[in-house]
Specification:
Blueprint lengths: L1 H25 L6 H30 L2 H24 L5 H21 L1 H17 L3 H7 L8 H17 L1 E3 L2 E7 L2 E3 L2 H18 L3 H20 L3 H19 L2 H21 L1 H11 L10 H13 L22 H9 L1 H24 L3 H25 L17 H53 L3 H29 L6 H45 L7 H5 L2 E2 L3 E2 L5 E7 L5 E4 L19 H5 L1 H4 L6 H9 L4 E2 L2 E4 L3 H11 L4 E6 L6 E7 L7 H10 L8 H4 L9 H11 L8 E3 L2 E4 L2 E4 L7 E3 L1 H7 L2 H8 L4 H10 L28 H5 L9 H12 L3 E3 L4 E5 L5 E4 L4 E4 L3 H17 L13 E7 L8 E8 L6 E7 L5 H16 L2
Helix pairs in contact: 1-2, 1-15, 2-3, 2-4, 3-5, 4-5, 4-15, 5-17, 6-17, 7-8, 7-9, 8-9, 8-10, 8-16, 9-10, 10-11, 10-16, 10-19, 11-12, 13-14, 13-19, 14-15, 15-16, 15-19, 16-17, 16-19, 17-18, 24-34, 28-33
């Protein structure tokens, strides 16, 4: 029943919030007063409904009766606050008020969900702030000295920051707190308001160069102190707000460009000076690469957002408590996880609606002090929104600033309520001034009408002459001048703290042009955040959710029955069944055969179970179908994953490898499909729990997928690359000749051919077919190692393979500065060079595919439980890494290996085969690793294969027979 209620309330909240957001923009353009009032009442109703539905859901999912009492108390406070505001300020901006209360409401709900005690504390602090700030609009409206205090604001704010610097306490690495017993607050949250008043009051009077220099020095002092406190997020807000206010006050683009340039330079300096800045940048660049340290916070945030998706998990159904400081810095991530991205986007749009309303108030004022103050508050507010949400979704590095009105923190919520109250007061002041001006104009119009009527009567009675007509005209001009004076006096009630009236009129259009331009920029930035937010969910969400560190996948399994994994030929490789105890268990019909490729669920997801976990815990069943299943108490079937693996070929490869340790990879060259992937030793995923301890202790590492993560010296298979590099550096390669005597000394290193073979006189093709070590050491030592390294890296050495699953990185370490004595071993595939079996298969497949390297993949398509295709994965090329001509030459050389060289065991088959054997010595006294890579048929390659048999012997004796069985089975 609980799941049913959560599911219903989840979609109800989405509908309510979407409608509310629409109305918050609709009222901005409505002209009809009655219709607008009706929409405001509707917005209030929607807010109360969202508030009630959220808290009822919290109560049902937690069964904590205290939540109901908290909800009722909040409801009473909301109603009383609304009545007091409406009674006290009939001219107030209803949109600003409703948006403020809606943002507070979402903060109350989410903080309560994270911690009931913190939710109560946040509510109490906010309630006190709402009560106290009830007088702020009146003070802004009636007190006439706000624009006269000028430098007093600046010096007071700087003094407070200096006090905190010397006597404050460190919290989360920043020394910007004052702690007295159990009470703590962040003074910089209030100093930012003083800072805006300081800049606005000083620049509204005059903004000549000397004044700008002095103000900039004082503003820079604020920023510097914040930097010394290591409150870099706060410093960024102060700096950016000042630059914007300075630009709008002066209209000089030079100040804006130079300020932003200086800010960029300061960011580089901060990166070099402060370790926590470097930590945040590292976490931003790749949080999952450092997930256990620097990236943990951001990674958990992305896990939450990705798991929540567009519709959310539902209140109390996610794991937002696993996000560090979820209630403050990352509250947007917590909201996204349980409310979903649709509500998250609506929340961003509501913040944008507030910003637009703030800016509208700014542009309406003629008084430069109020204009700049509203602009500064607007800039500070929207910058904070951008930095908080942008950091949470990894659009920008995290800065540690809070989300106004939503994040937990007494200082944050109080200062945010003060900002909204100041804006409300400025709106009231403007509306009152407009009304007074309108009344004055109406009164003057009535006077003019009376005088005009009297004048007309007099003219009719006295039959005025032309002279009296001139007198009347003079009277009318006098009255028009009187009207202008009246308007000026009325406007001065708004402009008591401003500059002279003629200056205000002259600069108003210039001010507004700058403000409108910045409005467009900030709006674009928020839409950029929304775009990235959506892109992340669509393009990256699945990959992020599938991460093995994400604990939320088990939560999805409570609602969705995980889908099946199928082979390309229809066999079930993994499925979920219900045992006799009514528990869902994951079973693997083929046991050990697919243990590494398909993977497991228990004790850390691996293989396809890991890479496609989110896919199989996602259902493409319609919303109505999901709701029906929930109402019936039945789990919804997750989507099935159809792999590229061929069950029959996999079984053949598994059997062919026998009891040897090693790996087999079979690819389709033209597409990159992985047809078979075997690694031994292996394990049975059906008994993983019982065998877990012994498997971990096993020195043979049965849990390791050798096909993708094993690294081995490539042996003579590496001669494919050595040959091609030699051809590129020596266009006359066909003239190459070498006399093999089974042993040669190259660069003070003695090289032997396998089994002491003496191949006699050879050209390049014969050296390749015979896998002659001495010949290749000879020609390879003449290679340009910088060029060879670049070529190897173009073939993905020292790079991550382009796959959706985890792979080891092959390595080639030599360059032009390396010791020449390392060259002979390296060019024949020994030394420090290492490669994975998958990578070797990709190289063989590239030669087979005319030099075009395809990205390997394991999943062909996703289907619903009843077979309807949801998504098909299409082949994707990595690039033309070698030319078609080069590929044809290598193909011919590899064919010669099978015909007359070390791979003759493959000759005489019903299909032609091209390949290269390899024997890789890795430790003195132990048998070599046996390699084979190749493809078939040569004329029209359909499969490419890579085989390694560990510690067995030569490639021709141990790896080739394995490959032969697989090729025979495929073309049977």
């Amino acid at each position: 029943m609980t799941n049913i209620i959560v599911e219903i309330t989840k979609y109800s909240l989405i509908l309510l919030m979407t409608f509310y957001t629409f109305l918050s923009f609709r009222v901005l353009v409505m002209k009809n007063t009655k219709a607008r009032e009706s929409r405001y009442r509707m917005m209030s109703l929607l807010m109360y409904l969202m508030h009630g539905v959220s808290f009822i859901t919290l109560y049902i999912t937690s069964n904590n009766i205290e939540i109901i009492f908290l909800y009722l108390t909040q409801l009473i406070v909301f109603i009383i606050t609304g009545l007091l505001y409406k009674t006290s300020y009939k001219r107030m901006s209803q949109l600003v008020y409703r948006n403020m209360m809606t943002l507070l409401m979402f903060g109350f709900v989410m903080i309560t969900r994270l911690s009931f005690q913190k939710g109560v504390r946040q509510f109490i602090i906010a309630s006190i702030a709402l009560a106290v700030c009830l007088v702020v609009p009146m003070l802004i409206d009636r007190v006439q000295l706000w624009g006269k205090l000028s430098f007093l604001y600046g010096f007071a704010g700087l003094a407070i920051l200096l006090f905190v610097l010397f006597f404050g306490d460190v919290v989360y690495g920043a020394k910007n707190w004052i702690i007295i017993g159990n009470f703590r607050f962040q003074p910089s949250e209030f100093v930012k308001i003083l800072f805006i008043f300081f800049v606005a009051s000083v620049l509204s009077k005059r903004h000549d160069f000397k004044r700008v220099v002095f103000v900039t020095i004082l503003a820079a002092a604020h920023v510097l102190v914040l930097v010394l406190e290591k409150d870099l997020g706060g410093a960024l807000l102060f700096f950016f707000t000042y630059i914007i206010m300075l630009y709008c006050a002066t209209g000089k683009l030079f100040y804006l460009v130079s300020g932003l340039s200086f800010g960029a330079l300061a960011s580089v300096v901060a990166y070099q000076m402060f370790s926590h800045v470097r930590v945040r940048v590292t976490a931003f660049l790749d949080p999952f690469a450092v997930i256990e340290k620097e990236g943990y916070q951001v990674a958990q945030s992305l896990f939450a957002i990705g798991t929540g998706g567009f519709t959310g998990m539902g209140l109390n159904m996610g794991l937002p408590t696993s996000i560090p400081v979820a209630e403050s810095d990352f509250i947007f991530s917590a909201l996204s996880e349980e409310f979903g991205a649709i509500i998250g986007i609506c929340l961003i749009l509501i913040c944008l609606s507030c910003f637009i309303m703030f800016v509208n108030i700014s542009v309406k004022f003629e008084n430069p002090f109020y204009k700049l103050t509203a602009l500064g508050l607007s800039t500070m507010y929207i910058s904070q929104v951008f930095l908080n949400i942008g950091g949470a979704i990894k659009c920008i590095p995290s800065t540690g600033v809070t989300l106004p009105l939503v994040s937990y923190g007494g200082s944050s919520v109080i200062s945010s309520i003060i900002v909204f109250s100041i804006i409300q007061g400025m709106y009231v002041l403007h509306m009152r001034s407009e009304e007074e001006l309108k009344r004055a104009q109406e009164m003057m119009a009535r006077r003019l009408a009376k005088r005009k009527l009297a004048s007309e009567r007099k003219r009719e009675q006295e039959k005025l002459s032309s002279k009296s007509s001139k007198k009347e005209s003079s009277t009318e001009n006098s009255e028009k001048n009187t009207s202008k004076v009246t308007r000026s006096r009325s406007t001065n009630k708004e402009d008591n703290q401003g500059a002279e009236v003629n200056v205000v009129y002259r600069d108003k259009k210039a001010y507004n042009r700058s403000i409108y331009s910045l409005t467009y920029i900030f709006s674009f930035l928020l839409f950029l955040v929304i775009g990235y937010y959506s892109y992340f969910l669509v393009a990256q969400g699945k990959t992020v959710v599938n991460n093995a560190y994400n604990k939320r996948q088990d939560l999805l399994a409570q609602q969705i029955e995980q889908g099946k994994i199928l082979s390309s030929d229809g066999a079930v490789l993994a499925q979920t069944i219900t045992n006799d105890a009514g528990e869902d268990i994951r079973v693997y019909p083929y046991g050990n055969v697919f243990s590494h490729a398909v993977g497991r669920v228990l004790h850390g997801r691996t293989g396809i179970e890991q890479s496609e976990s989110f896919t199989m815990l996602t259902s493409s069943v319609s919303g109505f179908g999901k709701l029906t299943n929930t109402l019936n108490g039945v789990k919804t079937a997750g989507d099935n994953v159809v792999s590229t693996l061929n069950a029959k070929l996999q079984q053949v490869a598994y059997d062919a490898l026998g009891d040897y340790r090693g790996a087999v990879v079979v690819l389709e060259p033209s597409t990159g499909k992985i047809l078979a992937m075997v690694s031994k030793p292996d394990y049975n995923p059906n008994t993983i729990t019982e065998k877990w301890e012994s498997l971990n202790k096993d020195q043979a590492s049965p849990l390791l997928n050798r096909a993708t993560q094993g690294l081995y010296p490539p042996g003579s298979t590496f001669k494919i690359l050595t040959t091609l590099e030699y051809m590129r550096e020596n266009p006359n390669y066909e003239d190459y000749r070498y006399q093999c005597k089974s042993e040669d000394r190259i660069n003070h290193v003695t090289i032997h051919c396998a089994n002491g073979s003496s191949h006699g006189k050879e050209n390049l093709k014969e050296s390749f077919a015979n896998s002659c070590n001495t010949s290749f050491a000879n020609l390879g030592s003449s290679l340009n190692m910088d060029s060879f390294r670049n070529f190897c890296e173009s073939m993905l050495f020292n790079k991550t393979l382009p796959t959706s699953f985890k792979t080891a990185q092959s390595s080639f370490v030599l360059n032009g500065q390396s010791d020449p004595n390392d060259f002979p071993q390296t060019v024949i595939g020994l030394g420090k060079t290492q490669i994975s079996p998958l990578h070797n298969a990709m190289i063989a497949a590239t030669v087979a595919n005319g030099g075009l390297m395809m990205k390997p993949y394991l999943v062909d398509r996703v289907e619903t439980f009843d077979g309807r295709i949801v998504k098909r994965y299409n082949p994707d090329s990595y690039g033309q890494v070698i030319s078609k001509k080069e590929a044809d030459i290598l193909s011919d050389y590899m064919k010669e290996v099978v015909k007359n060289g070390t791979g003759t065991r493959l000759s005489g088959m019903k299909v032609s085969v091209a390949g290269k054997t390899g024997t890789a010595d890795y430790e003195i006294g132990k048998p070599s690793h046996a390699w084979f890579v190749g493809f078939a048929p040569v004329e029209n390659p359909q499969i490419a294969i890579s085989v390694i048999v560990e510690s067995s012997g030569t490639g021709s004796r141990y790896a080739v027979p394995v490959a032969k069985k697989i090729i025979e089975a495929y073309f049977k």
